[in-house]
Amino acid sequence: AADDLRRAAARADAEGGDPSLGLHRALPAQLVMEAVPSFADAVGARYMAVPYHNVLHSCDVLQSAFYMLWSMQQGEGQQLPPVARLAFLIAAVVHDVGHPGVNNNILNSMLAPIALIYNDQHPLESMHASLGVQLLLHPPNNFCAKLPASRFRQLRAWLIESVLATDVSQHFEHLEHLNLKISKAQAQKGGMSFGGDEPDADQLDNISLFLKNALHASDIGSTGKSWPLYLTWMQRVFEEFFAQGDREKQQHLEPAPHMDRKVASIPKAQQGFINYLCVPLWATLAELYPHLNFVVEQMKDNVVMLQALEGEQTEAILSLALPTLPAATRLPSPKAARPPAVQTPTDPGT
Fold this sequence. Notes:
The protein is an all-alpha fold. The chain is 60% helix and 0% strand.
């Protein structure tokens, strides 16, 4: 199998399109074949049985991240070094591992143990990054075991930074920084440079900033999927939002308007989210890699579909039947069977 992987990668290189994203040059094929399935199983078992932040969401974000990396190969823009690509994909897989289906605000308000551990500073994202690295380092899962120590330290740093950046509270800060970087590069008649296998300090900073924005974009990238897929994810996320809102009311806390099933307007909340967060972020990334422009256009199409739903009741939207999809792309209903519940995230070997 390892020889087959090498031959497939070599053939793809010769044909001008590499589905391995060049990672076959950074990792021993035999180790990948043995450890990646074990890692995937371990991470999947740690995703909780919640409507949205579950293992299916992890797969969706991984697909978005992979497509973004593939798009980077199609044009003349800068390419990330292999270790940065690897960090991006691993971060996509683990970015919500162990998510309990509620957000940082309620955890901090209730003085939850995870909020106390991380001093209210991105408690969920900090836990995801920590648990993800622990799972990777468990020997049967560690397909990065042969990386030089210095490169693994850099991979871990990029993974942690990018997972922490999925906290939406940092959206505007990181996007503004990226736009400034792009404007400066354009003024100098160049592009953001990521360097090669040995990037300098400025290039390392560019890679870090790009990964922060790229993983966050992948995390919210379901808004740029075709309407049937986006509708599924929208139903799932509001099922989870409303469950948190109900819980907050039970604890005599005031839920955010979009989490209160009695006052929320799903179409309007999602239009604001797409127009003011998703579109600007993906449009900025599309300046660097024009192949991503179609995602922005799909987001705008989805906004039009949302406008048509403004007169519908919340429960009607949550139960709206999906347009027909091919069997290979159809997702289960939000109330379908879930992955097994997560165990306590302390011992990655369990």
